[in-house]
Automatic annotation (TrEMBL):
This is endopeptidase La. Belongs to the peptidase S16 family. One of its GO terms (molecular function) is ATP binding. The keyword Transmembrane applies. The active site is at 235, 280. PROSITE patterns: LON_PROTEOLYTIC (PS51786), PDZ (PS50106). It catalyses: Hydrolysis of proteins in presence of ATP. PANTHER family: ATP DEPENDENT LON PROTEASE FAMILY MEMBER. Its EC number is 3.4.21.53. It comes from Metabacillus litoralis. One of its GO terms (biological process) is proteolysis.
Amino acid sequence: MKSKTIFRSLILLAMIVLIMTFIKLPYYVTQPGMASELEPIVEVQNGFEDEEGSFSLTTVRFGRANPLTYMWAKLHDYYYIHPLEEIKREDETDEEYYNRQLHMMEASQESAITIAYKKANKQVDYTFHGIYVDGIVKDMPAADVLKVGDRIYKVDNKDFQTAEEFIEYVGKKKAGDELAITFEREEKQKQAKIKLAPFTEDPKKVGIGISLITDRQIEVEPDIKLNTKEIGGPSAGLMISLEIYNQLTEKDLTKGYDIAGTGTINTEGEVGPIGGISQKIVAADKAGIEIFFAPNENDSPTSNYKEAIEVGEKIKTEMKIIPIDTFEEAVEYLTKLKEKG
């Protein structure tokens, strides 16, 4: 009789746990991810791939909170709880968020390729294909017509190649003017007319209510392939640029060390801050990384680097954490680094 009671209690507990996993709370939970080597992800045609050490990107795992993961995050260090609005834009769907992260990653890849190839004195050219809708402002005219991921390539029958061209053109219009938009969605061409309206937060400024990313295809010699389909966001930019440059040049910059880091990068080689630096330090330490590059933000007192140092001290890591403001700084540091004994 007692064993039956225990069995029924266990079944009831299992059912409660199962049900709780399906309850979605208005939060996301983030936690340390992993360090992933970049050599299998980056492939420069006929490039130098005999690295004694490695370059790795670092990740943060995240997911929608349920009661169990929420409680788990409350009880564990470096598990953080975020309200939905901290992760996703207002009224942004999961699909729109995913598309936005992929476009940000694509832009980051292009910058990483550009800066690495130019540093290696290799050819870099671009072909422009229009502009991607990266975000839509609620209650603005575009909200009823466009979706995140749409590619606009004509406005008023004029070809547009960059986001800057679009912004300049719209800036000359006034509220009530109408734009004829030609765009592509899921490989189908569509057309629509959208009137300009003033923005609520700045009535002197008019627009249709979208943010944009230039859709361009980079063309380089030698050719390159990046297998980053599962990676979203721009935070791997710095490390991707270092891996590309290392494959373009004969001398191995890793010097036998396992090196990771994080930071956005632009076509000028400037390294920008990212989110989740604490969790990335924890992930890198667990992976046995020896050197970690952290965005220095021009020595800001609230920089990623400062936070990384604090976390490194708390977890007693032996990993060297290096402040970086530019791609050039990272290359210079590695060039001066002694070979691992």
